[in-house]
Amino acid sequence: MNMQAAPQETTQVKGPAMQEIKTDVLVIGAGSAGLSVAAGASQMGADVTLLEGHLMGGDCLNYGCVPSKALIAAGKHAQAMRSGAKFGVSPVKPKVDYAAAKGHARKVIETIAPVDSVERFEGLGVRVIKEYGTFTDRDTVVAGNHRITARRIVIATGSSPFVPPIDGLDDVPFHTNETLFDLMEQPDHLLIIGGGPIGMEMAQAHIRLGSKVTVIEGAKAMGKDDPELAEMVLRNLRAEGVEIVEGAKAGKISGKAGAITVQTDNGTFKGSHLLMAVGRKANIEKLNLDAAGIEHDRAIRVGADLRTTNRRVYAIGDVAGGLQFTHVAGYHGATVIRPILFGLPAKAREDHVPWVTYTDPELAQIGLTEAQAREAHGDRLEVLRSGFEENDRAIAEGRAEGLIKVMVVNKRPVGVSIVGPHAGELIGLWALVIANKLKIGAVTNMVAPYPTLGEVSKRAAGQYYAPRLFDSQLVKAVVGFVQRWMP
């Protein structure tokens, strides 16, 4: 008698049951853009679900704007100890505790974090799910054991550091902005590949904190900025000891921790640490956009209304492929609130968006640069200039190296470039002017307190009327007539 073995029983381990959620607004990503939408929509009565698979606050709070400006501040304090001679203060070599400077950056993050926390947003009525989201169809997203159907979906997943495929890079330890602020060991010699805003800000912060720094740029450092103003920044960085090598495309990287070599077509450079700062890429990998009918390439395709090719879905902030700034992300969030909640049209624009590189001196820009304005407007363009050397506050503080350029067409500013101390604060006035399409007279009519750096803007605006008043024979004739005949 043949005996057959009895079939073995199998036990299936089941995960938690899928939870079905229906919501008015689903926000994917809890960075600056997503948090703006979630807070606004919830407080105005919508049912809002927010997904975040990593850190609340996104790149800006945890790896970008916040810790970088904290580290820059530490560097400024160190530099002030070296540069007091002209004020009658004996310069001294600062004793820098690099780990403590990084601790300051961490403390700043911890101070701001509650504003972006799960607890705060749940207190606002937002349903927060700590999972990444993936589309399964045009209006459904799965996040962990949640299946979410939404009337409107907002993708706000931001961007991450772009790491180019350089020969040997995979075998060498390197940092991006996502890891740099966890580094507590003082770099002896920091190599930075990339001469854009992140690279130049971190270069200056580290040279001031006591590291040697070499910036390796394949094209032109700060190449997207007005070249006249950018050169003033680069000259100052070089004077402080930063080695800036332009036209040096990295071809091969080799070495190990503490001893890294970068070979370029313009020389070979050796250092102890390597920072990759060559740009950003949109975070779209986990989304399964094709399932939702959302067209994309390196970023998500959107119209001026920030809608994707799926009418139910919007994309805002860095993932939409435009200007990659935190304040743009917040602006996008405010823009899409209008159509999502009220069904009213709204379009985003970029001509009124300022940006700042937080080097010392700072460089700020809004609208068109001089070169862009000349190409767009030709002979109709007037460029107004005013140097900080004519500003009494700048002179008093020993910070008189700076320049403002205002591009004007038919009395309306179309662009402003500023280099100098607190340029990021000074550009705010021009953001107001350009956003509201005001004429240059709005600035000349302003009464600026004396002595402040704000007078730089008023003086620049005055250059528009100076030749029309002081060089006009008609004006002089009218004044002469009035003086002769007025009782």
Automatic annotation (TrEMBL):
Residues 24-333 form the FAD/NAD(P)-binding domain. Pfam families: Pyr_redox_2 (PF07992), Pyr_redox_dim (PF02852). Its cofactor is FAD. One of its GO terms (molecular function) is flavin adenine dinucleotide binding. The keyword Nucleotide-binding applies. InterPro entries: FAD/NAD-bd_sf (IPR036188), FAD/NAD-binding_dom (IPR023753), FAD/NAD-linked_Rdtase_dimer_sf (IPR016156), Pyr_nuc-diS_OxRdtase (IPR001100), Pyr_nucl-diS_OxRdtase_dimer (IPR004099), Pyr_OxRdtase_I_AS (IPR012999). Disulfide bonds join C60-C65. FAD binds at K69, G133, T157, G158, S159, D318. Binds 1 FAD per subunit. It comes from the Bacteria. Residues 353-460 form the Pyridine nucleotide-disulphide oxidoreductase dimerisation domain. Signal peptide: none annotated. NAD(+) binds at G194, G195, G196, P197, I198, G199, M200, E201, E217, G279. Keywords: Disulfide bond, FAD, Flavoprotein, NAD, NADP, Nucleotide-binding, Oxidoreductase, Pyruvate, Redox-active center. Belongs to the class-I pyridine nucleotide-disulfide oxidoreductase family. This is Pyruvate/2-oxoglutarate dehydrogenase complex, dihydrolipoamide dehydrogenase (E3) component.
